[in-house]
Amino acid sequence: MAKRNNLLIFILAIGAFGIINTEMGVIGILPYIADHFRISVSKAGLLVSLFALTVSICGPTMPLLFSGLNRKRAMLLVLGIFVLGNIVSIFTSNFTIAIIARVIPAIFHPIYFSAAFTMAANSVRKEESPKAVAKVLIGVSAGMVLGVPVASFLASAVSFQMAMLFFAIVTAIAFIATFVFFPSMPVKERLSYGSQLSVLKKPITWLAIIAVIFLNSAVFGVYSYLAEYLKTVTNISGKSISFMLVIFGGASIIGNIIAGKLLTKDAIKSVVSYPLALGIVYIILFLMGQFTVPMAIITLVWGILAGIGTNINQYWIMSSAPEAPDFANGLFLTSVNLGTTFGTAVGGLFISGMGTQYVVLVGLLSLILSVVFILLRNYMYSPTKQLSK
C-alpha cells in the first residue's frame, strides 16, 4: 500500500512539474517568442502575466465547480488540455491564438493542483500529510528550476517550437502515467458549494489568506528581480547569473523536503519563525549583496527558505479551512499568485524610485506585515483549537 501511495505521489509530482514547466518555462524564452511572432519582448510577456492572472481568478472557482467530479477524470482533463495547448503553440504563427492556447490551460490549472494536494494529503495519516504535500511541491520547484534553463537552451540551440514540444512531452508523460496507474477516484462525500463557500465567513480564513499574500510577496517581490540584482549590484556575468538561478532553484527543492519534516514536527513554531529567518537573510543580502561569494551563499539559503515558504503557505491556508480541502487549495493558489503580482509590482517601484539594491525593502516590508497577520491568527485561534477542527 505504501509503495502504491509513493508511486501515485510521484506521478502527481510529475504532473505538477509538467504544468509548472509550461507556466514558468516561457520566462526563459521570451526573446525567442518575440522573434517568432515579430513582436516586442514586453508584449511577449503577456504570455506570463495573463497566465498568472487567470490562475489567480480561477483559483477558488474552478476547484469548487469540479469538486464533485472523479479526481482521476479531472486530472486527465487538465493534463490533456495542457498537452493540446502546447501543441497549438508549436504550430501557430498568430500571437492571439498563442495567448488563447495559454489562457485556456491556465483556467484549468487550479483544478489539478487542488486535487493533487488533497489526494496527497489523504493518502497518508493526518499528521504525515505535510510531508506528502511537500513531495508534490517538489515537482513545482523542479518545474521552476529546470523549466526555465531547459526551455531557454532548447530555444537557443534548436528553436522556440522545440521548447514548446518539451513542455508538451512532459505533460503527456504525466497524462499517460495518470491514465495507467491511477485507480478511479470518485468523490465519496461531495460537499455542497454553500458549505465550501461558508469557510469565507470565518475570520481565520481571511487572516490566513492575507498572511500568505504577504509571505509570497516577500519571496517573489525580490526573487523576480534576482537576475537584475546579480547583474547590476553583484556585477557578475550572464553565465554566473544562470548558475546562481540554478542554485536558488535546486535549494528550493531541498527546502520542500525540509518543510515537510518541520511542519510535521511543529507547524505553528515553523510558521512563526519563518518570517524572522527570511528577514535575517534579506538584511544580509542588503549589506553583502555586492560581493560574489557571500551572494552565492545567500542565494543558497534564500532558495531553501523559498522552498519552505511554499509549503508553509499551503499549510497555513489549508489548516484554516480543513473542512473544504479542494476550495482551500484553490484559495492557496489565488493567494500566492496575488502575492507574486503585488510583490513584483511594488519591487519594480522600489527599483525605479531608489535603485535595484533597494528591492530588498519590498521583502522586508511584506514580512513585517505577514507577521502581524500570523500572530493575529495565533492569538485569536489557539493552535490546539485550530488543529482539532
Automatic annotation (TrEMBL):
One of its GO terms (molecular function) is transmembrane transporter activity. The lineage of its organism: Bacteria, Bacillati, Bacillota, Bacilli, Bacillales. The chain crosses the membrane at residues 7-34, 46-69, 76-101, 107-124, 136-158, 164-183, 204-226, 241-259, 271-289, 295-318, 330-351, 357-376. It comes from the Bacteria. SUPFAM superfamilies: MFS general substrate transporter (SSF103473). PANTHER family: CHLORAMPHENICOL EFFLUX PUMP RV0191 (PTHR43124:SF3), PURINE EFFLUX PUMP PBUE (PTHR43124). One of its GO terms (cellular component) is plasma membrane. It is a multi-pass membrane protein. Residues 8-381 form the Major facilitator superfamily (MFS) profile domain. CDD domains: MFS_NepI_like. Pfam families: MFS_1. It is found in: Cell membrane. This is MFS transporter. Keywords: Cell membrane, Membrane, Transmembrane, Transmembrane helix, Transport.
